[in-house]
Design goal:
By secondary structure, the protein is of the alpha+beta class. The protein folds into three domains: 28-404, Metallo-beta-lactamase domain (Metallo-beta-lactamase, Chain A, 4-Layer Sandwich), CATH 3.60.15; 417-484, Alkyl sulfatase, dimerisation domain (Serine Threonine Protein Phosphatase 5, Tetratricopeptide repeat, Alpha Horseshoe); 523-625, Nonspecific Lipid-transfer Protein, Chain A. It contains 24 helices and 21 strands. The strands form four sheets. Strands 1-4-5-6-7-8-9-10 form an eight-stranded mixed beta sheet, with helices on one face.
């Protein structure tokens, strides 16, 4: 067998998956009925393409997951079932006047019909899938104009297709409003732009879009079957911000009541109740998965206390007045009593993880120890929607520890450890050399001790990335761990590691959350913040410059910013001018965004007059010469 191709499940993996199947509530098949309820039509062309014709996502790639097919040896049986239920793709009716586009990419797009037009909630990940979804809706329900765009929270998969739904002219003319929770724009930028390159690279492991689809590759992404690659992300800034629970809006004849949920699944989030429809949009706070308290791609730790208290309040605010609850992932649940039970069990899930993680921490357990020890009680564990299909009990318990106690477990050996490459060389030397380590690891692999094989061979690979035997054996271990993982994001992490160990890191071009359109939606302060992040501090450490920049922003007119380059930092103050600036600069906000993004050069902007200067232009050239480009394809399982 070619060393770069997937391997079959080992006997140890087959036994582990068979044992897991015996502990699952197979008699509960309600999800299959709920997930198919209200289905209207699929996309006529299941391959969604970008402007150049290149596929963004091929929805037929997941056809191998048949509803009646038995789980293969290479997929955890619980994950296989979840992938089957998650497989609905197309337009669905939730209740009279409310529709969802599901399975077109990672998130759902919800459409609420008004008197004259439609309200769109969360326009998917990218412009391409959002356009395809909106066209499918209009094909079956008529070409209604969009009167409102609502972002339920600040994650990129809930705003990226904004420009497929609305244009700037729609908003400027007042034909449509853009509604978002308080802090939306700042939090979207903080998570998806400031750390966007690192998060995108890590997300390739978490979601596995580069993995082949199939029983030995990517099977599901937890929140949906999966996401595409190569989509274009956009953002239109909100025009109406909700700040307080109980605020109401009536748009196009549709009444909405909002519940604020900051610090739950996202730093900026709300839930929406539609009293006339007896329907609740739970955003991403109650889905058919155990959600993340911290994501594998990286994000702020979520507050489990705020989460359970929010769901508790949801029950009291809206439970009795709700006949259907739907979220911006997965499928709805119908029936008032069933909805209250669902919300209550999800509430209890996050409270149990929080309280018991801290109980164990207060007994002296470290994050790794408490994660190994913690188990859910049967009343929570035996609910399919509480299974770890996105978050996991293991890494969520570690998130609770991190939120309260930080990354350090108080063992001084972990306070200042050696970097992986240096530690790897010493470990390999202590253990008798690379050949000896690989030989012993091979024996552990035969015993099915894959976690240990993966751990110990990390030292060999980081000490010598060219050691083929170590790379191939570690890839085999990661692969078997992936086959045994119930959590699809864990599976994707393991299988992406195996893929890159076998094939190397392949530069497939730019797959960025940080796009020029997103920067254009940011405030000038946010753009200067991002410029400061891109500044090469060590190179700038001894330099001094004073720059006054007047930014013409259509939203607020011309605003001056006093910039100082000092001590390796870019400091800015709005509404101020420097006493003796080296240079004064004028530009539109869009030009500033283009300069920082890199779509235009300073020389080009000076030549065409879109940037004007007076004073010493060398100071400006020096500043832009110190900005760092962020390459996406950095190493993860090798140095």
């Amino acid at each position: 067998m070619d060393a770069t191709t997937p391997k079959p499940a080992t006997e140890a993996t087959r036994a582990a998956n068979a044992a897991a199947a015996e502990r699952l509530p197979w008699r509960d098949r309600r999800d299959f009925d709920d997930a198919r309820r209200g289905f209207i039509a699929p996309l006529a062309d299941p391959v969604v393409r970008g402007p150049g014709g290149a596929p963004v996502i091929d929805l037929t790639a997941w056809d191998f997951v048949g509803e009646s097919a038995e789980a293969p040896d290479t997929v955890h049986p619980s994950l296989w079932r979840h992938a089957q239920v998650n497989g609905g793709r197309g337009l669905f009716e939730v209740t009279a006047g409310i529709y969802q586009l599901r399975g077109l990419d990672l998130s759902n797009m919800t459409i609420v019909e008004g008197d004259e037009g439609i309200i769109v909630i969360d326009p998917l990940v990218g412009n391409e899938t959002a356009a395809a979804g909106l066209a499918l809706y209009r094909e079956h329900r008529g070409d209604r104009p969009v009167t409102a765009l609502i972002y339920t929270h600040s994650h990129a998969d809930h705003y990226g297709g904004a420009r497929a739904v609305l244009s700037d002219d729609d908003v400027a003319s007042g034909r449509a409003v853009v509604i978002a929770p308080d802090g939306f724009l700042a939090e979207a930028v903080a998570e998806n732009v400031y750390a966007g390159t690192a998060m995108t690279r890590r997300a390739l492991y978490m979601y596995g879009p580069l993995l082949p689809k199939g029983p030995t590759g990517q099977v599901d992404a937890g929140l949906s079957s999966g996401a595409g690659a190569g989509f274009s992300s956009s953002l239109i800034a909100p025009t109406d911000v909700i700040t307080t629970t109980g605020e109401t809006r009536t748009v196009d004849g549709v009444r909405m009541v909002f519940q604020m949920a900051p610090g739950t699944e996202a730093p900026s989030e709300f839930l929406i109740h539609f009293p006339d429809h007896r329907a609740l949009c739970a955003a991403e706070d109650a889905t058919h998965v155990m959600h993340n308290l911290i994501t594998l791609r990286g994000a702020q730790v979520r507050d489990a206390v705020t989460w359970w208290k929010t769901l508790d309040a949801t029950i009291h605010l809206f439970g009795a007045g709700t006949d259907v609850v739907f979220a911006q992932h997965n499928w709805p649940r119908w029936g008032t009593d069933a909805i209250v039970e669902f919300l209550a069990n999800q509430r209890d899930l996050y409270k149990y993880i929080h309280d018991q993680s801290l109980r164990l921490a207060n007994l002296g357990r470290t994050p790794i120890e408490l994660a190994e020890e913690l188990e859910l009680p049967p009343g929570l564990d035996q609910q399919w929607y509480n299974r770890g299909y996105y978050g996991s009990l293991n890494h969520n318990s570690k998130a609770v520890y991190q939120r309260y106690l930080g990354w350090y477990d108080s063992h001084p050996a972990h306070l200042h450890p050696l970097p992986p490459t240096e530690a790897g060389a010493r470990y390999v030397e202590f253990m008798g050399g690379a050949d000896a380590v690989v030989a012993k690891a091979a024996e552990s692999f035969e015993r099915g001790d894959y976690r240990w094989v993966a751990e110990v061979l990390t030292h060999v690979v980081f000490s010598d990335p060219a050691n083929t035997a170590a790379r191939e054996l570690q890839a085999d271990a990661f692969e078997q761990l992936g086959y045994q993982a119930e959590n699809p994001t864990w599976r994707n992490e393991y299988l992406m590691a195996a893929l890159e160990l076998r094939n190397g890191v392949r530069d497939l071009g730019t797959l960025q959350l940080v796009t020029l359109d997103v920067l254009n939606a940011m405030t000038p302060e946010m753009i200067f913040d991002y410029m400061g992040i891109k500044l090469d501090g060590p190179r700038a450490g001894e330099l001094r410059a004073s720059i006054d920049w007047v930014v013409e922003d259509g939203a607020s007119g011309a605003v001056g910013y006093a910039l100082q380059l000092r001590n390796g930092c870019l400091i800015y103050t709005a509404g101020m001018t420097s006493e003796h600036p080296d240079v004064t600069v004028t530009s539109a906000k869009g030009v500033l965004a283009g300069l920082v993004f890199g779509s235009i050069t300073l020389a080009e902007a000076l030549a065409d007059g879109s940037v004007g200067t007076s004073g010493d232009g060398a100071a400006l050239s020096t500043l832009f010469g110190l900005l760092t480009d962020f390459p996406l394809w950095f190493g993860i399982v090798e140095p």
